[in-house]
Specification:
It holds the Pfam family Bax1-I. The protein has 237 residues and is an all-alpha fold. Helix content is 79%, strand content 0%. The chain has one domain. The termini are far apart.
């Protein structure tokens, strides 16, 4: 699903109304995923709080690693099985909601709200830019992909160094990278649908786009939460 050439000069095969319909479906799926995460986080912190507190550490680590497998599963199967991919996206959203609930204990309600509202504003602005710009942002993907790879390597190194100052600086860099990815991913999905929409499952392509944008949003939110929370040094306790 990721082997599309967005630099191709292939003639667009869909009308504006069809493309808008696809984009509406993609953004709706992404919005539903965010709402599922928010609901899952709320239930984790309230209804299932005691069960989570008594959960074995091994089980918790397993749950934290599941999203990687789900993301890969959606990426490889979205075109073959759109319904299964939608279900996996819902499960992924629930797990991230669970993880958000665990992290939320280190921040105040005001910090979480500010980070979420800021993330939503940044996401909407960049998604609109990526969707409606007449420019092809394909080059952004190459540069941002390289930047993200270097960033992840540096982030892993800092996990061992455990420097709060470096972590704080990395949070700003992370916001910049994923903000750019929102625009480039939105632009990329629109181009892919316009050029290849008759060759793949529209629902599957919408799920794949929703996954990419959801992960972009999640990362922006987490990095902004780190920034507004002062590198996680503030606690509700």
């Amino acid at each position: 699903m990721n082997d599309f050439d967005t630099n191709s000069n292939k003639r667009q095969i869909h009308s504006i109304s069809e493309t808008n319909g696809f984009l509406t479906k993609m953004y709706s799926l992404m919005a539903v995923a965010v709402l599922i995460s928010a609901l899952a986080a709320y239930l984790t912190m309230t209804v299932f709080r005691s069960a989570v507190m008594n959960m074995p550490v091994a089980m918790m680590w397993l749950i934290l690693l599941v999203p990687l497998g789900l993301s890969m599963g959606i990426s490889f199967n979205a075109n073959r099985s759109p319904i299964a991919s939608m279900i996996m996206l819902a499960i992924l959203s629930i797990i991230y909601g669970f993880e958000f609930a665990l992290i939320a204990g280190f921040y105040t309600g005001s910090q979480i709200t500010t980070a979420f509202v800021s993330s939503a504003a940044v996401f909407i602005a960049m998604a609109l830019f990526g969707t409606f710009t007449k420019k092809d942002l394909s080059n952004w993907n190459a540069y941002l992909g390289a930047a993200l790879t270097g960033f992840l390597v540096a982030w892993l190194v800092n996990m061992f160094l455990n420097s709060p100052a470096v972590t704080y600086v990395f949070s700003f860099i992370g916001v910049i990278i994923f903000t750019g990815l929102v625009a480039s991913d939105a632009n990329k999905m629109k181009i892919i649908y316009s050029q290849y929409g008759n060759q793949v499952s529209t629902n599957g392509l919408a799920v794949l786009g929703a996954l990419q944008l959801y992960l972009d949003f999640v990362n922006i939110f987490m990095f902004l939460l780190e920034i507004f929370g002062g590198s996680g040094n503030n606690s509700n306790n």
